[in-house]
Amino acid sequence: MTAPVYEKVALIGLGLIASSMFWAMKRHGNLAGTVVGYARSDATRDTARRIGLCDTVCDTLAEAVEGADLVVLCVPVGAMEAVAQDMAPHLKPGCTVSDVGSVKRDVIRSVGPHLPEGVVFIPAHPLAGTEHSGPESGFAELFDNRWSLLVPADAEVPEEDMARLRALWEGMGANVEVMDADHHDLVLAVTSHTPHLIAYTMVGVADDLRRVTDSEVVKYSAAGFRDFTRIAASDPTMWRDVFLTNKDATLEILGRFTEELFALQRAIRTGDGDLLFDYFTRTRAIRRGIIDAGQDTAAPDFGRSPRKAT
Amino acid sequence: MTAPVYEKVALIGLGLIASSMFWAMKRHGNLAGTVVGYARSDATRDTARRIGLCDTVCDTLAEAVEGADLVVLCVPVGAMEAVAQDMAPHLKPGCTVSDVGSVKRDVIRSVGPHLPEGVVFIPAHPLAGTEHSGPESGFAELFDNRWSLLVPADAEVPEEDMARLRALWEGMGANVEVMDADHHDLVLAVTSHTPHLIAYTMVGVADDLRRVTDSEVVKYSAAGFRDFTRIAASDPTMWRDVFLTNKDATLEILGRFTEELFALQRAIRTGDGDLLFDYFTRTRAIRRGIIDAGQDTAAPDFGRSPRKAT
């Protein structure tokens, strides 16, 4: 039996991602010799112990990271700097520090300077999630066939350390790509962050509109709106931090979005059917690209009404 | 064996909705004595014949509607007025004329005046659809447990005729509600039309952004974006007509949307984390409402990466 990829892994923060990582590591069986967890709140640590999340749940950050070969920050990105400061004195020389945050430039900026010499810093971002939160929300399959992006903080990360972190994510089911931090933040602004903001906004508008009752909004939600509401149920802390830390890219995309939207708004106001038709035809092609790439999702659906008893 | 709900049903336009209506009627077995279909293009009529869509495919509109007890307009709403004008002289006295368009005030305005005295006009809107189009896209289950809204053109529709149309939609699997036309258009602007426009816009922005390649947009599409692309693959003709004919309600919702978006944009620019957090917390409650109403959809997912051969 070969040695596990890491002897001791420390998960800092025990939410959806950390708990899924634990279950996925356990499922594989040979990714980590032992997995310890730490969370700031007593209640979270108690829950984790109760459900068997992690081999050991530590009551202090120091205890968790001591001797760990890999430390993964799974706290909201806004909380990472403080954690980095607190754990730095206790890190084992030569260990790898990583994370799972949805933005990367800001994580590098806020965490990097606190890490001692000799610690290998390889930020990461698994493109996976659900609308649920907390230590009980994780499951082993979350990363299966998902992308996990490794975003090394600088060019000098040893190949061997990159290979180990890649092996961990692949062992948990993901496919790994390496990406530059600023490019990551722009791509994610386009494909995830700005769409989320827009979904939140649409749901907020519906909530405000008194002439349309809440129950109608719920009952008659079409594909578009219900997808938006699912997005708008995502963790508020995580998303607040994403927008505060991926500000430039998000604002750039938002600016472009409002330009396009105003053009479409004018077309509607002036009855320019041709412009609308051309626009909608063009966007159809992008969807084709996704289907052809094997990334298709289920067909859209309107709100299902409960079958009345006959 | 009781008599079918309608002896002869004519489906005008043979796309996703009409074809699904045929298969759903056939599945039930006693909703229609015979179903005839008509489409403007030879190719569509040939395809329909080839796949057994409708008991008879007619080569003229007149032939299709003659003697029909129910005529359902399943053409884009922009095309309905011309169809109404052409078919009017051939309608059987006392028949019901209905439709399946996504807007209702405009359909009443454009179709109503052309219908002869004695014809019962009951516009409808089944809240169901997929991203596919055409005569081959229909299937019997499309309306199962979906809402179908009946929007009578005036207060004098005889109860018996309303009951028959309700029985048809319920027989096809739907649950029926009766709604006022202007209220319908507002509710749909909020829950469907404006979200669609926004999804189209987000996809258009991604398409423009050269620094993020198309393949990255495809590969790393997160839940939000992929849902948007699915929406943006919807039929361009149908959606162009929706926005041209539900202009006022759509522009009202769009106006509110841009107000909210600018407020969030400012919060991001100024780093107002509290405003963002409060906003995202509020929108989560709406999602709860949908789950509690039994309208939940599948969990969101990021782009699934194809498992590389090892």
Automatic annotation (TrEMBL), chains A, B:
Residues 7-298 form the Prephenate/arogenate dehydrogenase domain. InterPro entries: 6-PGluconate_DH-like_C_sf (IPR008927), NAD(P)-bd_dom_sf (IPR036291), PDH_C (IPR046825), PDH_N (IPR046826), Preph/Arog_dehydrog (IPR050812), Prephen_DH (IPR003099). Keywords: Oxidoreductase. It holds the Pfam family PDH_C. NCBIfam families: PRK07502.1. This is Prephenate/arogenate dehydrogenase family protein.
